[in-house]
Amino acid sequence: MTASSTHWIVTGNFTEDGAVAWRRPDGTWSRRIADAGLVVDEETAKALSTTARATEQREICEPYGIEVQVDGDTIDPLTARQRIRANGPTIQLRRPD
Amino acid sequence: MYQYDDHDRRIITDRAHQFRGQVSRRLSGEITEEEFKPLRLQNGLYMQLHAYMLRVAIPYGLLGSAQVRKLAHIARTYDRGYGHLTTRQNLQYNWPKLTDVPAILDELASVEMHAVQTSGSCIRNITADHFAGIARDELEDPRPYCEILRQWSTFHPEFAHLPRKFKIAVTGAPGTDRAAVRFHDIGLRIVENAAGERGFEVIVGGGLGRTPMIGEVIREFLPKRHLLSFIESILRVYNLHGRRDNKYKARIKILVSALGIDEFRRRVEEDWEASRTPELELADEEVARVSAFFAPPPYETLPANDRVDGLVLGRDRELGNWVRNNVVAHKVPGYSAVVISVKKPGIPPGDVSDTQLDAIADVSDRYSFGHVVVTHTQNLVLPDVKTSELPRLHAELRALDLGEANANKLTDVITCPGLDYCDLANARSIPLSLEIAQRFDRIDYLNDVGDVSIKISGCINACGHHHVGNIGILGIDKRGEEFYQLMLGGSPGNDASIGKILGRALAQDEIVDAVEKVLGRYLEARESPDERFLETVRRVGFDPFKEAVYGTTDSLEAAGDSP
Amino acid sequence: MRIIRDRAIVEDDFVRVPDGAEPPAGAKPIVRLADFIVAREELLARHAAVGVQVSPDKLPADIPDLQRLALIAIEFPRFTDGRGYSVARMLRQRHAYRGELRAVGWVLHDQLQYLERCGFNAFELQPGKPLDSALGAFGELSVTYQAAVDDPRPLYRRR
Prior knowledge:
The complex is a heterotrimer of chains A (about 100), B (about 575) and C (about 160). By secondary structure, chain A is α+β, with helices and mostly antiparallel strands. Helix content of chain A is about 25%, strand content about 30%. The mean pLDDT of chain C is about 95. Chains B and C meet through helix 1, helix 2, helix 5, helix 6 and helix 9 of B and helix 2 and helix 3 of C.
């Protein structure tokens, strides 16, 4: 894994409904990880998170940075936890009736 | 069951109103998430991986049919059509919006329900034996005391910010503890002393999690009237002296262990002598008032019904298996208690859909005086069914996908939500439980293996109670991958024991095979079909099972597997 | 500095004295416990009203001459540190303390009613937090189940 293929992005949960949020390059928040703005290192992600935490409480809960791998257009988190946040639970949700 | 009076109603509606104010101050930005968090936790609202999660309190697991219908309505209207039964007799919703929670709390309040103190460092739901009031081996019904403790603990101003959460359980059947009182922060057993008086044996400092411990007796006999004042003293000593520097060392069990039970007892007794007042004594009138709500329902006078044996051995094998496994003897002649297993292969254990909940409400009205009880094994109980109606009930439950004949059997798995939902988890637990349920879904095999509990937790917080499973599985994170520790020999009851890890952690594609090997070894090693899994493990020890899974009885390196 | 005392917003008439410093003459000083232990006779002689501020690990037994104190302030270093609630209740009920009992530090609007029920009658909120709306917190839960300082009778004795 070369340095150029890993990046950091900023994530959190929307205050209103708790859904997973990904920070776009322009500072707005998306529900899709594909829209996340890539930054080059952890420090930058941390700084963006700190600012968001201070100024965007109404929109976002507890933002933080995570490391991801980028392959073309696909952004792929490195941990199972973040993958599940990006893609949803790995099991069928609604009970079939 | 307990009926609210104006005071009770006021308390809950005031709280819902207060929370509405707190939510709008959060949404407007007047308070930050850091300040809001303890407030929302005290109203049972968590933030999980994908969404908020709301945990509704079901005091000692008991529900009336109107409440069940309301839970169905909330699932349908505000969530994704299902609720999840928990190991502390509560129900949780996985997808509520913060903006809807005030409305949900109002809806709950309209049926005398709430989400108070189901989270946070405060006193949580008081749990009890799910056969309370009807079990043949019960000395006295614990539910009135559970209700009294519920009221005492609700919004208790002194104990809202304890070092950590606090869980109390009560059993009225001293011979068979179905409430796991020895694994709670405070466990209470109703007992009778030599003079024939009833009181409580008070056990303190039990728990699971990172450091599982069996509780110790702080008072062998506490007269009933001292229940609240004595418990307050235990809480006060904990509040003042429990550790607040390390969240993993903050439960009361750590304090009791550090001081030793004698010193801990001395401090509690000292505080009790200095603090107890006549007003704090539990008045007989109040015990009588609350007990009246738990008076027996209008049972018919029926002959003792030995139809049960006939049903078990009858030609309808599905009915026979279900009666054998899911029907429990009742103290009133002609009645039975029925376990509704929600554990159908393919369904995450504990999940119930809105249509099933509505149907269960109807069934409870027609068969069980409108009552349903949530068990801490994530199933439901209809407590008062006429034995003569069992065949008809079974047919109805089967049509609802609620007729699995697997109560206490292999596929009656207990599991936490795990990494699919939970922010604390290290590994997924539900897929494992689904695989187990699918692989062993053969009734003859289930009956042959007999009573065995498999309990799965996705992290060391042990919400799946894996330490006290006959087979316990703990999910861990090993180098970024999901691995599973396998342990055997746990039991939550009077014969309390903590499971022992068998060997090195196993990968996702190894663990269910390992469970199968363990079961295979049990079937070989047991003295007779009557010897249950747990008994065999205790008799032959761990080596035969180690050998079956790992091919060796050498002490296997589990050191790299810290959760 | 404005504080809440007895459910009203008032100007604080006590003065917080830095560690080791000499309180101004004629003032109503609040000193930290360590300073009080060292100089208590002098302080009590020189000032009509003396207050002591304690950290939450202190118990009533750690405060000498507590009945001669006009004020005891208990610290809440984090709003999640609940020890002060028990200490306050012990001071009021076991020790019959009658002076001002003040909650200081990280004290949230939403805790005021619980704090009051445990015996606090004065509160310093954090800088910037509105006091006027905080007064509304006191009546938010109109019925209480359990005995506390405000009423030593559980609800079942009041029903």
